[in-house]
Write a structure and sequence with these properties.
33% helix, nine-stranded mixed sheet, binds iron/sulfur cluster, alpha/beta, 9 helices, TIM Barrel
């Protein structure tokens, strides 16, 4: 009879074995060497799914959980790790989407692996999530890149499908905790460039600590995705803002002493 060296595990050993995670993530796509999504050169991972339904979403194809690759956090990390030598001092991974907070368990596993591997992490998010999720991920995120949508709650609901209250509360909370925050602000004519909304923006910015604000002129590059999905694009009549208007907002914010990016 053939003999084998079977080493039986004691009850104590069994308790010490960490189970392999069964959490699988839904990844829509990747972008290598992104230069506009956080500090330095970034590997951008687009997570599938989002708790919002913005009327102007340019990644509409990432929301319906229909078109994605399934992978473990470890598999995703191995992909990102291959690019580590290109990140330099500032770069790293940007987790975007969709909105990564839609997959909180997977997000947390992936963030932990990145931190352990010494990879800088930026989380591109609406911050529409629970305090428990925020607390679980925040110590693994180097930069929170948060989209500010609208300060009037009714308009926010009609533009995004959700209230802005939990989002603004989460931002205040993160600011109190000393998180590094970058804001993104889409200049959407008739909505976010109004006198009232810009006043509310300036008031809110006084309440929180942040590093910079990135102005994104509204564009229509993603409209074809809505059409391809057979969905009606509700902002058809809105044209992108003039550069003059965007520069005026930039100047206004710089006058308040803020660092303002205008990359796109
Ligand atoms: S938060 Fe971003 S990804 Fe989600 S619906 Fe809005 S624009 Fe699209």
């Amino acid at each position: 009879m053939k003999t084998t060296n079977i080493v039986k595990m004691s009850v104590k050993d069994k308790k010490n074995v960490r189970p392999v995670s069964k959490v699988r993530g839904m990844i829509h796509s990747f972008e290598t060497f992104g230069a506009l999504d956080g500090p330095g050169l970034r590997f951008v991972v687009f997570f599938e799914g989002c708790p919002l339904r913005c009327a102007y979403c340019h990644n509409r194809d990432m929301l319906d959980l229909k078109d994605y690759m399934e992978m473990s956090a470890k598999e995703l990390y191995e992909k990102v790790k291959d690019y580590k030598e290109y990140f330099g001092k500032q770069g790293g991974v940007t987790i975007s989407g969709g909105d990564p907070v839609f997959q909180p368990k997977f997000l947390l596993e992936f963030l932990k692996l990145c931190k352990k591997g010494g990879i800088h992490t930026t989380l591109d998010t609406s911050l529409m999530t629970s305090r428990a999720v925020l607390d679980s991920v925040r110590k693994y995120v180097d930069v929170f890149m948060i989209s500010l949508k609208h300060f009037d709650d009714d308009i926010h609901k009609s533009l995004t499908g959700v209230s802005n209250k939990p989002i603004l509360e989460n931002i205040r909370y993160l600011s109190d905790k000393g998180a590094k925050i970058w804001f993104r602000y889409v200049v959407l004519p008739g909505y976010t460039d109004t006198r009232a909304n810009l006043k509310a923006l300036r008031e809110f910015l006084k309440e929180v600590k942040f590093e910079l604000i990135d102005l994104l002129p509204y564009h229509t590059y993603g409209v074809y995705k809505w059409k391809k999905l057979g969905l009606k694009y509700g902002l058809d009549k809105i044209k992108p803002p003039t550069m003059r208007k965007v520069l005026k907002i930039k100047k206004m914010l710089e006058k308040e002493g803020y660092k303002v990016l205008l990359n796109s």
